Amino acid sequence: MGLALALQFPAAAQWPTFEAKRAPRKSDGSIDLQAPTPRARDGHPDLSGLWERMGGGGGANRNASPQPPPDGGPPVATFGNLGAGMQGGLPYSPLAAMLREERMADNQKNNPDARCLPMGLTQLHLHPQPRKIVQTPNLIVIMYEGNEGLRQIFSDGRALPALDENLQPWWYGYSVGHWEGDDLVVETVGFRDDVWLDVQGSPLTGRARMTERFRRPNFGTLQIDVTIDDPTAYTKPFTVRVNQRLFPDAELIEFICNENEKSVRFYDP
After folding, report:
1. Is there a contact between 50 and 142 (Cβ–Cβ < 8 Å)?
2. Cα distance between residue 196 and residue 202, in whole Å
């Protein structure tokens, strides 16, 4: 039920309309999404803002094969099937392919989103509900409206935790970031073994390493290239692209998925 609600959630049901004071505007008063990339005090691109997915939707179109990016970049990810734009699909290991088929045959009823649990990061990147990025010099916080998710990306120079038996698995893993020119590169390890990368149940395991490369080429565009290296679930690493656009003059709303939630009772009689 939670997933169904998310897919139908109207973008208009956001915070009451207001005007962002520092946003560049055109002569007609609308925000100039093609304006130059904003910069933080340290000179790096400022990724802060409220963002919504651009393309890569779900619902009836979640199996559609998107066109590759015109710049020759990686295939565009979709919410329903992360590898829909990839020739031959994702490189599943035999065990992962079997698990995904089981999840689909079960009508994806155990998708964490349907149970008001934290979603996999790629699901959150492509979720129809928006997300807000707050950037500081040493910490980047991403607040997801979908299931009230909260993610921390540490950019204070700390090392990525060692991926061993002493690391407590987390839904979102442990993320550290550093800048390579104008790109924010985020590395994440320490996932749980039951993460779903997409609605159709592409798995992620505790051996995975995720690398995200965030770019803001102009004021209104955010581009994220996501590389998954999970030797348990996939026969080789792969990269997909997520495109997001600024959601101007709006804010997150409070979305409590568990309020009046009945799907668990329906699925687990």
Report:
1. no
2. 6
**3-state SS string for 29-95:** CCECCCCCCCECCCCCECCCEEEEECCCCCHHHCCCCCCCCCCCCCCECCCCCCCCCCCCCCCECHH
Strands 174-180 and 221-229: unpaired
Residue 141, amino acid: V
pTM of the entire structure?
0.87
**Would you call 79 exposed, middle or buried from its count of C-beta atoms within 10 A (0-12, 13-18, 19+)?**
buried
Determine the Cα angle at 195 with ends 223 and 214, to 5°: 15
Q: How buried is residue 142: exposed, middle or buried, by Cβ count under 10 Å (0-12/13-18/19+)? A: buried
Reported as a single tens digit per residue, the pLDDT across 208-265 is: 999 999 999 999 999 999 999 999 999 999 999 999 999 988 899 888 887 766 655 5
